[in-house]
Amino acid sequence: MIARYSASFLVLGLVGASVGVAPLAAADVDLTPDQQQWVMPRTSDGHPDLQGNWSNATITPLGRPRGQGPVLTPDQVAEIEGRREEFIEVLSATSDPNREAPAVGGVRTGDFAFDAASGGTGGYNYVYIDGGDRVAIYNGESRSSLVTNPADGRIPSLTPEARQRRSERSEFNRQFGAYDNPENRPLSDRCLMSFGSNAGPPMLPNYFYNNNYTIVQTADHIMIMTEMVHDVRIIRLGERVPLPDQVRPWMGDSWGYWEDDTLVIETTNLHPLQRFNGNPSDNLKVIERLTRVDQSTINYEFTVIDPATYTAEWGGEVPMKALEGRIYEYACHEGNYALGAILSGARYQERLEEENQN
What we know:
two-stranded antiparallel sheet; 5 helices; disordered N terminus
């Protein structure tokens, strides 16, 4: 389901209201001859044409490692990308059919995507994983994190109120086993939403696979389809008519408008089970800005506003790169027996425990 794409992908970034990393002015960026001659494509109503397939795959982390500056040097980039290429090469090698069984409990590599995919038992190797292999580049800068606001590149601390909500939810969840019911499993296990915040808002890379999007645009609506679990957002343009507070779609109520050549999207009313980065409040608001800057790049910026959850607003910058090839249907439920197997396996374990007690 992953379409073939260019190795030039990589770029995703994020920015909030007051950006910690000052973006380069246009005059400060070395433009190629093609970029200098590029003319913004426009739709029949005169707005920038954002339509097409795009990707935000990258190995740049969401939060900045402590002690790291906002911009990486060429040597640092070469080291990071070199390690990644070696890692992918090793984990993509043909498996030895005569290898021994994995250790009890599985073997962990420390790589999130590989360990999640294989379960520590070699379920499948890196051939099936496509989380990116390049550092994110924004306005010519190799970024050390996607978060740029606040200035340290890290998500602000939770408020006491948010910590209390998290504690109460944990207490509630403790009355259930992790595999008691379908509702105890993550939304992604149930084929309801993509992993992490892939579909958003904000739309972030999942460092796993299927970090691809299709944008379709009309005069009064924008559609963004996320490959992961084929999530679709419909953004209304023009005068805002908000949904009632009790109506909360999975990806919220999104309203868009144009500021010159930038598409601005404001989203509220996110579904309460959309627990991006913890347990946001009912008043979470996300502002996204999409600006096409050349033939192959959309600059994606976002700001997360939730004073009942975070001690400050935060956000980042994400250039999305044009995708070569097609995006195929994810078809999460089709031929997927994982959820049934998870629950039946848990029931089997319970029967064994009961038999051992008798």
